[in-house]
Hints:
Radius of gyration of chain B: 14 Å
Oligomer: heterodimer
Number of strands of chain B: 12
Largest sheet of chain A: 7 strands, mixed
Amino acid sequence: DTGVSQNPRHKITKRGQNVTFRCDPISEHNRLYWYRQTLGQGPEFLTYFQNEAQLEKSRLLSDRFSAERPKGSFSTLEIQRTEQGDSAMYLCASRLGGALGYTFGSGTRLTVV
Amino acid sequence: AQSVTQLGSHVSVSEGALVLLRCNYSSSVPPYLFWYVQYPNQGLQLLLKYTSAATLVKGINGFEAEFKKSETSFHLTKPSAHMSDAAEYFCAVSPEETGANSKLTFGKGITLSVRP
Lengths: 113, 116
C-alpha cells in the first residue's frame, strides 16, 4: 500500500449539483475518518467508520451529506444540492484500531461556483 | 469537550534560528496530543504525539514538543530551522489514544515561513 488515496484531487461544481468523493484507505486499516478543512482553519471532524459501520456523525454533517463504506473497504462521501459554503478540502484518514496515529490522504478540494 | 488554541496564524524565522510554535489545550480528561504538518496541496503528516509515556516527545525532522500539564501547553520546537520546514502546522487533541472516541480536534494552524 502506498497510503490513503483520495479521488478526485480537485472538483469544481455548480451550486445545486451533487458531488461524490472516494477514499481508499490503507487496506488493513479498519477505521476511516472524514474531515473538512476550510481556508484558514484546521480540519473538522465529519464522520467515522469502523469497518462498514458508521459509528459517529458530526453536527456539521447536514442531511445533504451522506457517507458510506460498503464492505468496510473504500468510502464515499456524497454532498447533495451543493452550496457555496461547502467549498473546502475534504480529508480522509485511516488507522488500524489499537494502533497509534492516523494516515491522512491528500484530500479532495471542492469548489462550488 | 476538548479544544486547542494556536496563538497567531503566522510565524517567520530565519534559516538556522529556533522554531517555537505554541499550542494550548483544554480537556476534561487526560489528553492525547499531536502535532501534524501540512505541505501545500498535501494531506497531514504526523510529526509527533504525546500519549502520557514521557512529557518530552521527539518527532520526525528534528522537532520535539514538551507536555506541560500545569500550563496546559504542548509547544513545538526545533533548534535550527531549515527551508524545508516551511509549511502549515496543526496541533490536535484526542480524548482517547486508540479507542472508538479517538477523533481529533484540531487548532486553526500556524503557517511557518523560513527566511534565507
